[in-house]
Design goal:
582 residues, alpha+beta, 17 helices
């Protein structure tokens, strides 16, 4: 079955909002519907770039490439559960029918003979009012120039067939196709159909460009001829090769600050403020996706504006915390330097209305609760690797079920003497201000300190590991699972090794989540639509990150997925018609 988004001139439906478009594209990426293609016969400087990067205008908000390989799409459909397969099939059929079947086209007959391995769809930012228009459009003016527009780039492997199909498009139910010329390039577009602005052009016999706006077609031609495309946007060409993979399934690009601003302005904001705040700190975000036997792998890169004064510290010192927690750990998030992370948060939160909490509020809250200075008393000695983990406890029969999991925080101290002084102050606060019992104790012969609430419940335990790693346990009493060092470590489990990427190495942070066990035993807050269906299809999630250079970060993510038994092919258009008749 062919992918649904490969198209020739088709009937245009009502334009969706930009936010809906970006949200849908994000879901496609998450579901595995993105794809990436590298042109093998291109200039060396663009060989590792998104297909059509030399045509898509540089101010594009979003671009995603989709594979045209039916075998790849069938492989994708084998992941997940029957429910996720049905949801994916529903979206694929809707897109295929909208762009192909409903317009009289069949992929194998009309498209496959001439189209390249992948196609790209881009969403353009609205043209600014003061931007000069090189040449006025004489026909089919945009009804709403302040809306986003779409550009689709289809690489051509057989120019004669593509030229013929463009010269003789399918007959329209309303209106007619007309020709006009812009910068020496023939543009075919629709005239006389209400709300229809479809436009198509063949560039240098190598790319068929289809848009939903005549102005968007002109902008694409200008970008191609004037070299003002994505390929020349700051940081784009330098960073895309970092995630190149010649066996990739897909790739996407996001113009981060512009997209985040538009998403933030939406009354139904699809992303939480914390995510938007961090996204706005970057200029670009890109990812490549490949299908593997046990799941989907993403290679990602984000980069700063080349003109920005901000510089990233190339410091990758994480990667040891997974060897300090037990094999049954449900979740672990680690980072290389907590003090530096806080400094980055301060820098990116200044004058940022999307920041979840202002740094001053965090400092003030800690000061009022503990009388400690966050920067001087705590973060000053937290310059080493840190982690946050969820570790389940063994619930004994008849015991209360209030705490089934313990939250473990660990941080490598750069100055143990300063750390001990601060922790001693915390003990005094818990004793004098909150009336907790502060009780020295021992676990496996090692000294620890318990904070016991006025009601007699063990609330927290703190101590030291390996001489310089301070730890704090809150919730279930799981200290005996980390003291002494467990024999069976998270790092040695097959699940961790098969899920958490080994690259980039060295690393600045890692993430692991055993989705199956977590969902089975603990309720999770709903964050995205169809969350339970997606989680039911997932085994585990792993991520490894690193600071690539002083302008960019790298991320590798692997999602281990379940598989559908006896996966069938995507229903054909003919079978859909038969079913509807019945």
């Amino acid at each position: 079955m062919a992918p649904p988004l490969v198209s020739v001139p088709m009937k245009k439906t009502k334009k969706p909002s930009l936010v809906l478009t970006l949200s849908a594209a994000g879901l496609l990426i998450g579901a595995g519907s993105v794809a990436y293609w590298l042109l093998s016969q291109r200039q060396i400087s663009s060989s590792d770039l998104l297909v059509g990067a030399n045509i898509i205008p540089g101010d594009a908000l979003f671009a995603v490439s989709l594979t045209t390989d039916p075998q790849q799409w069938q492989k994708l459909r084998e992941f997940g559960t029957k429910e996720t397969q049905a949801e994916l099939d529903k979206n694929l059929i809707e897109l295929r029918d909208r762009f192909l079947t409903n317009n009289g086209y069949d992929f194998q007959k009309d498209i496959a003979p001439w189209v390249g391995n992948d196609v790209t769809i881009a969403i353009l930012a609205p043209a600014t009012a003061n931007k000069a228009v090189p040449k006025p459009v004489t026909t089919n003016q945009d009804a709403a120039s302040d809306q986003q527009s779409m550009v689709m780039v289809l690489p051509v492997k057989n120019a004669e067939i593509a030229k013929n199909i463009l010269a003789q498009p399918k007959t329209l139910k309303q209106g007619k196709w007309i020709d006009r010329t812009y910068q020496g390039i023939t543009i075919k577009e629709i005239e006389g159909q209400a709300g229809e602005n479809l436009s198509a052009a063949l560039l240098d016999r190598r790319f068929l460009v289809i848009t939903d706006s005549p102005k968007a077609t002109e902008r694409a031609i200008d970008a191609y001829k004037n070299q003002t495309s994505l390929a020349t946007t700051g940081g784009f060409a330098e960073n895309f090769p970092k995630i190149a993979n010649y066996q990739r399934f897909g790739q996407f690009y996001v113009n981060v600050p512009t997209a985040a601003k538009i998403a933030a302005a939406s009354p139904n904001r699809p992303l939480p403020a914390q995510v938007l705040a961090q996204l706005q700190n970057n200029q670009g975000l890109a990812g490549t996706m490949t299908l593997e036997p046990e799941g989907i792998r993403f290679k990602g890169v984000s980069w700063l504006n080349p003109n920005s004064q901000r510089m990233l510290a190339v410091e990758n010192k994480a990667g040891k915390m997974q060897s300090r927690v037990p094999a049954e750990t449900l979740m672990m998030l680690s980072g290389g330097n907590l003090q530096r992370l806080w400094g980055d948060y301060i820098l990116t939160s200044q004058r940022n209305p999307l920041s979840p909490i202002a740094p001053e509020q965090i400092r003030g809250g800690i000061k009022s609760l503990t009388n400690l200075d966050l920067d001087k008393d705590l973060l000053s000695w937290m310059k080493g690797e840190f982690s946050l983990s969820l570790i389940p406890t063994t619930v004994k029969q008849g015991s209360p079920d209030d705490f089934r999991v313990g939250l473990l925080f660990m941080v490598q101290a750069s100055n143990r003497q300063s750390a001990e002084a601060s922790i001693k102050q915390l003990d005094e606060v818990m004793r004098n201000q909150f009336q907790f019992q502060v009780q020295p104790a021992k676990v496996a012969g090692q000294p620890v300190v318990n904070w016991v609430s006025p009601y007699g419940t063990l609330t927290a335990t703190h101590g030291w590991l390996d001489g310089d790693v301070a730890f704090l346990v809150v919730g279930a009493p799981i200290t005996d699972k980390i003291v002494p060092k467990p024999n069976n470590l998270l790092a040695s489990t097959l699940s961790f090794q098969q899920t958490v990427p080994t690259e980039p190495n060295p690393t600045n942070g890692q993430f692991f989540l055993d989705v199956e066990r977590t969902v089975k035993n603990f309720p999770l807050p709903t964050l995205i639509p169809n969350q339970q269906t997606l989680l039911a299809a997932t085994r585990s999630i792993g991520m490894t990150s690193a600071v690539s250079d002083n302008r960019s970060n790298r991320y590798d993510i692997f999602i281990a997925l379940k598989k559908v038994r006896n996966s069938t092919a995507l229903p054909s258009p003919e079978s859909n018609k038969s079913n509807s008749v019945r």
